[in-house]
C-alpha cells in the first residue's frame, strides 16, 4: 500500500516537471526576434558564447533580415576566432546595409586575421568614404598598409589620422615604427617624442626611442629612456637588460651587473641577461661564472650561435680545447657567417700547431670583417711561420692600418716588418 502511494507521488512529480518544461519550451517558442537578441546579449555578457550563438540563430530564423543579429553573431564568431563564419555574417550585413560601418570594420578585421590584407584595405577604404573625418579609420587602414609592406601609404594614413586628431599618441608611435623600419631614425625619434609628449606614461615609446638612441651611439639618451621605462615599470626586464648593456659599454660594470642581476631575479629565463653578464665574467677572468651563465643561456636558447662561440672561448681559456672546438663548430654550423667563431677557432688551431686550418679561419674572419686587426695579426704570424714573407708583410700592414692606437702589439709588428723587409 505504501509502495503504491510512493509510486503515485513519483509519477505526479514527473508530470509536473514535464509540464513545466513544456511551458518553458512554449514560452521560448513564443519569443520575438528582439527578445532572442536581448537574450543573446545577456549570454555574451556572461561569456556563454555557445548559447549566445543559439539565441542569435533563433532571432535570425524569425527575422532573416535582422541586421543587428548578424552583427552580434559575427562579433561572437570573431571572438571565437571562427573567422570564416564571422566574415559570412558581416558580409550578409553589408548586403542588407551597404553603409553599415560596423559591418565593414568587422569584416576588415576578419580579413586581417586571415591574412587577406588587400580585402581589409578595401573595406577600410569604404569606411573612410562613409566618414572621411574619422581618424581611427585612417589609423586602422595604416596598420594594414604597414603589415602589407606598403610603408609610404601607411605613413600617409598615420599622418592623416594625426592631422584629424593631434593627440593620437598611438598613431605617432606606429608611424615612428614605420620610420624606424625604413631607417629614418630622426623622424622616428621625433614621433616617439611626440607620443610621450601626448602620453607621458607611454612605456613602449620610451623603450623604442631608447633602442634607436643606443643604435645611434647616443648612450646617455638611451640610458635616460630606459631609466624612464623603469620608473614607470620597475620590473621591465628588457629595459633592465638594455640599460645594463649601456652601463657595460660605458665601463660602469657595477651598475651593469646590478641591472642584470635584477633582471634575472625577476625573470630567471632571460637569455640576454645571462649572455651579457657572462661576458662581464669572461672579461674579468671569472671563467667558471662565465661558463655557468653561457651554459644557462644555451639551455634556454639552444640555437644561439653567438653564445656557443663565446662559451667556446671560455672553454679554450680553461684549457678544455675539445669542448671549445665543439662549441666553435656548433656556432659555425648554426651560422656560417659567425665571425667570432672563425677567429677564435683560428686561435685554437694556432695553439695546436694546425697552421693551415688556422690560416683558413683567419682568412674567413677577414672576409666577414675586412678591418679585423686581430685576424690580420694572427694571419701575419702564421704566414711568417710558414715562410711566406709577402703574405706576412701584407697581413702585418693591414694590422697596422686597422689596429687601435692603444694596441700593445703595434711596436712588435713594426719590428717584424723591418726584419722581414731586411731593413
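Sequence proposed for the structure above (423 residues):
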Amino acid at each position: 500500500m505504501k509502495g503504491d502511494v510512493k509510486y503515485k507521488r513519483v509519477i505526479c512529480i514527473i508530470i509536473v516537471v514535464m509540464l513545466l518544461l513544456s511551458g518553458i519550451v512554449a514560452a521560448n517558442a513564443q519569443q520575438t526576434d528582439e527578445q532572442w537578441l536581448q537574450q543573446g546579449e545577456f549570454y555574451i555578457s556572461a561569456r556563454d558564447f555557445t548559447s549566445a550563438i543559439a539565441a542569435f540563430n533563433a532571432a535570425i530564423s524569425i527575422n532573416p533580415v535582422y541586421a543587428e543579429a548578424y552583427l552580434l553573431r559575427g562579433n561572437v564568431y570573431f571572438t571565437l576566432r571562427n573567422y570564416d563564419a564571422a566574415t559570412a555574417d558581416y558580409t550578409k550585413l553589408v548586403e542588407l546595409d551597404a553603409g553599415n560601418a560596423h559591418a565593414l570594420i568587422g569584416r576588415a578585421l576578419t580579413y586581417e586575421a586571415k591574412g587577406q590584407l588587400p580585402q581589409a584595405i578595401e573595406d577600410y577604404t569604404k569606411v573612410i568614404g562613409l566618414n572621411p573625418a574619422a581618424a581611427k579609420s585612417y589609423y586602422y587602414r595604416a596598420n594594414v598598409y604597414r603589415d602589407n609592406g606598403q610603408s609610404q601609404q601607411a605613413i600617409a594614413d598615420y599622418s592623416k589620422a594625426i592631422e584629424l586628431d593631434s593627440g593620437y599618441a598611438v598613431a605617432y608611435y606606429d608611424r615612428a615604427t614605420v620610420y624606424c623600419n625604413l631607417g629614418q631614425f630622426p623622424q622616428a625619434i621625433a614621433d616617439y617624442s611626440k607620443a610621450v609628449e601626448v602620453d607621458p606614461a607611454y612605456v613602449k615609446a620610451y623603450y623604442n626611442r631608447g633602442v634607436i638612441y643606443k643604435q645611434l651611439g647616443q648612450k646617455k639618451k638611451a640610458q635616460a629612456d630606459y631609466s624612464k621605462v623603469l620608473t614607470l615599470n620597475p620590473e621591465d626586464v628588457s629595459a633592465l637588460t638594455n640599460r645594463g648593456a649601456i652601463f657595460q659599454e660605458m665601463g660602469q660594470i657595477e651598475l651593469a651587473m646590478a641591472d642584470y642581476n635584477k633582471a634575472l631575479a625577476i625573470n630567471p629565463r632571460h637569455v640576454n641577461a645571462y649572455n651579457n653578464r657572462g661576458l662581464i665574467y669572461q672579461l674579468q677572468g671569472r671563467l667558471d661564472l662565465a661558463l655557468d651563465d653561457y651554459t644557462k643561456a644555451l639551455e634556454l636558447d639552444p640555437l644561439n650561435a653567438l653564445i656557443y662561440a663565446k662559451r667556446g672561448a671560455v672553454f679554450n681559456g680553461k684549457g678544455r680545447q675539445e669542448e671549445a672546438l665543439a662549441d666553435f663548430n656548433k656556432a659555425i654550423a648554426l651560422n656560417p657567417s659567425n665571425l667570432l667563431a672563425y677567429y677564435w677557432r683560428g686561435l685554437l688551431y694556432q695553439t695546436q700547431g694546425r697552421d693551415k686550418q688556422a690560416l683558413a679561419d683567419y682568412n674567413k674572419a677577414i672576409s666577414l670583417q675586412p678591418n679585423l686587426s686581430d685576424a690580420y695579426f694572427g694571419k701575419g704570424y702564421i704566414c711568417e711561420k710558414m715562410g711566406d714573407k709577402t703574405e706576412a708583410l701584407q697581413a702585418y700592414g693591414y694590422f697596422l692600418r686597422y689596429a687601435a692606437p692603444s694596441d700593445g702589439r703595434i711596436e712588435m709588428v713594426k719590428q717584424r716588418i723591418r726584419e722581414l723587409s731586411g731593413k
